[in-house]
Amino acid sequence: LKRLATMNSQQILDQAALMAVQMIEKTVDEQIDRMDHMGEDELAQIRRKRLAEMAALQKEKQEWRRNDHGMLMEIADEREFFATTKASKRVVCHFMRKTNPFCLELNEHLRRVAQRHQETKFVYLDAERTPFLVEKLKIWMLPTIALILDGKVKDYVVGLDEVGGEEMQTGYLEGRLLNAMVIFENEDGQDNSYAPGNDSDSD
Predict the structure, then answer these.
(1) What is the CB-side half-sphere exposure of residue 83 using CA atoms within 13 A?
(2) Which sign, positive or negative, has the C-alpha torsion 68, 128, 159, 150?
(3) pTM listed for this prediction
(4) Selected residue with higher pLDDT from 125 and 41
(5) 10-20: pLDDT as tens digits
(6) H helices of the chain, where?
(7) d(C-alpha 85, C-alpha 194), whole Å
(8) What are the backbone angles phi and psi of residue 27, rounded to the nearest 5°?
(9) What 8-state DSSP symbol labels residue 153?
(10) Which residues, including other chains, have CB under 8 Å from residue 144's CB and lie 6 or more apart?
(11) How far apart are CA 93 and CA 142, in angstroms?
């Protein structure tokens, strides 16, 4: 009976896999058929649209570079904070204390994520030097990461629980920021260099 159940389970898995392949093949065939029946004007319109999208993305990337995206930078005061959130659509801001070892370690994880996500500005500031901002944003625990979209704080990562606790990992941090939509998924959708438990330099 056990062998029969195993065979039935395998047959079900095989059938499901076959159906999935057939669905993919059908979708590909439909797309090819649609392309085959497109006129030259339609194909030219698609090419123009794609070229316009590529040009817009290239322009946006140049803007990111001008705004020092792709790295973790320190900001000094409230004025610089507001200037930063005005200049960049997506900002990840770490409120920290330089004497706190967990804050310093979190900065290293943020630095790694910043290098992989140039679409977002990554900054940190010393909470003790910005009391007005800390009070305004109701920062009550350090470290706290403010996740900012279009100049407004949309979410917070408070403490370390959401990034792996004292054994924090870059993968947890990156996933949390992705869920909050302050970073984009990598273009291939498959890059798991910082998957939880797989940090390249974790202890």
Answers:
(1) 7
(2) negative
(3) 0.67
(4) 125
(5) 566 667 667 77
(6) 2-36, 40-66, 78-87, 101-116, 131-136, 170-179
(7) 27
(8) -65, -45
(9) E
(10) 94, 95, 156, 157, 158, 159
(11) 12
